[in-house]
Amino acid sequence: MILAVIAEISVVNGLRLDDVPPWRQLLFAVLAVAAYLHGRHLPERRDGLLLAVAATPGAVFVVPDFWEGVTALMALGLFVVLPWLAGRFRRQQAELVLAGRERVARLEREQELIAERARLRERARIAADMHDSLGHELALIALRAGALELAADMTEPNREAVARLRACAVTATDRLRRTVGVLRETGAAPADVTGGVGDVASRTPTQPPDETVEALVDRARDAGMAVEFRHDGEPAALPPLVDRAVHRVVQESLTNAARHAPGADVLVHVERSARAVAVTVRNSAARHEPGPPGGGSGLAGLRERVRLLGGTLRAGPHESGFAVTARFPSGQGESEVSR
Prior knowledge:
By secondary structure, the protein is α+β, with helices and mostly antiparallel strands. It has 10 helices and 5 strands; from the N terminus they run H-H-H-H-H-H-H-E-H-E-E-H-E-E-H.
């Protein structure tokens, strides 16, 4: 064992220290460096040092002078034990730093995977919203085409063209339904907030597919949240995808407020104009003990939805609470998604 050899040489070199020549002084320095490098780089356990120290008394007790044996043991402790412990400490410190970096990198990768999964779930929700809006319109096209096909004043070529139009609408509806079904299977998210808000989700009914923001705020207020709703601007109808996105922003923000700031006052402000719609959900500081932290993927999904619709989203601390602000172009939602 290398450490035992270093310890034996240190003990022998520690004898007869009345007149120490320079080469023996240099040997002490070399032994200290060797012991440090051994503890720093070699995978030696601490019991290896104890074994090396236990093997040295044989060389000490053969010395007739007791005090020379004591000085030899002091040299062993000073030039072998202490440098080895220092090297071992540096080795453990480096291993802890490396383990910490690996853990940080692993957590960052996990966060990236969670955010990516949230984005995929949000894309699946967008596909479902497209199915709800486009499927309805395609069904109306097929219905009106069928009515035209039965009109008495239709010529035979026009009747055949209308029949092809109705068949195309039915085929498109079926393909849209199957595509959305695949997306729901691959990107479905657990319904943790669709039935209500935060901890009171189990006490509120499942949201209808065409629920308005006002109805969502009323459900949250009925569940026990202190929510104020403000609506400014033109009451013009929004494109279906933009309307669903506004609903999702308010829903996720109310969920986060209920979870992380229970008892806080919440303000939901929707402002519409001819070119854009802005929604802000702002809560004050929590009045009760917050619940356990969630997965942290809700805002990532919202950012993906807002980005696909050509909008912007900001979320962060505001005064003593938290605020989420999203802005959408009010008339370009479908075109942005189609690109």
